[in-house]
Design goal:
There is one protein chain. With 232 residues, the protein is α+β, with helices and mostly antiparallel strands. The protein has 2 domains: 6-75, OB fold (Dihydrolipoamide Acetyltransferase, E2P), CATH 2.40.50; 89-229, Recombination protein O, C-terminal domain (de novo design (two linked rop proteins)), CATH 1.20.1440.120. The protein is 38% helix and 23% strand. It has helices spanning 45-50, 84-100, 108-122, 127-141, 186-194, 200-218, 224-229; strands at 6-16, 20-27, 31-37, 56-62, 68-75, 162-166, 170-173, 183-185. The strands form 2 sheets. Strands 1-2-3-5-4 form a 5-stranded mixed beta barrel. Strands 7-6-8 form a 3-stranded antiparallel beta sheet. A hairpin with a 3-residue loop joins strand 2 and strand 3 (31-37). The model has no long low-confidence stretch (mean pLDDT 88).
Length: 232
């Protein structure tokens, strides 16, 4: 069975058996899908470069089983060029997508979010701010949105107050260290809600909060890219 041709970004490529490769794609209409690329290892250098992360392509696939075969791929526009910390940030985003998204679960809005994010990374803007916005937005679009502007009792967040962020209920006024799972200032909660990251403390606390929340959704296996950041 042949699927309709659609836009897709390459998230990850890995070897498979003697001569093939497995490519994780983020597609516009079908969500995340892993496709078998036959003869990947025997391809020319230019062909392998074509099948690299951050490439936007038009693709189609075929097959009835769980693992389908890449049938057609053609480049769409110029590839997004990332390097240095932008490249590492892009790898982090790609790994997060593969860990959070279930196969063949369509999220067209996530495709647009991903595209906007890697383009922003290529401009070497505030990378930490870009990552925090991406994390917040992907959780929101998947139905896991954070409660950031009101506390558990419905009161508006006070920027001068410290809160404990509880995974099940959101922010509660802190009753001292050790009461909650994650202590965070009201200022950081509101900044994350508004997408404003012009303060170092806000960036630091936002990173810790997002790491705490995301860990509950991806399980105990750590993200490999976070380990790489330690040595880069």
């Amino acid at each position: 069975m042949n699927e309709s041709t659609q836009a897709a970004y390459i998230l990850h490529v890995r070897s498979y058996r003697e001569s093939s490769g497995l490519i994780d794609y983020l597609t516009h209409d079908a969500g995340r899908i892993t496709l078998l690329a036959k003869g990947y290892k025997s391809n020319t250098k230019s062909r392998k470069l074509f099948l690299q992360p951050f490439r936007k392509q038009t693709i189609s696939w075929r097959g009835k089983g769980e693992l389908k075969t890449l049938d057609f791929a053609e480049e769409l526009g110029c590839p997004v060029l990332l390097e240095g910390w932008s490249l590492m940030s892009g790898f982090y985003i790609n790994e997060l997508m593969t860990r959070l998204l279930q196969p063949l679960d369509p999220h067209p809005e996530l495709f647009e979010l991903y595209e906007d994010t890697i383009i922003s990374l290529s401009r070497f803007d505030n990378l930490e701010a870009i990552l925090r916005k991406f994390e917040r937005n992907i959780l929101e679009m998947m139905g896991y949105g954070l409660q950031l502007n009101t506390s558990d009792d419905g009161e508006e967040i006070d920027p001068e107050v410290e809160y404990d962020y509880l995974f099940e209920t959101g922010p509660v006024r802190s009753k001292g260290e050790g009461y909650g799972n994650m202590m965070v200032s009201g200022k950081t909660l509101l900044s994350l809600y508004r997408g404003q990251f012009d303060d170092r403390q806000v960036l630091k606390e936002s990173k810790a909060l997002m790491r705490f929340i995301i860990a509950r959704y991806i399980g105990d296996r750590p993200l490999k890219t976070r380990e790489l950041f330690k040595y880069y």
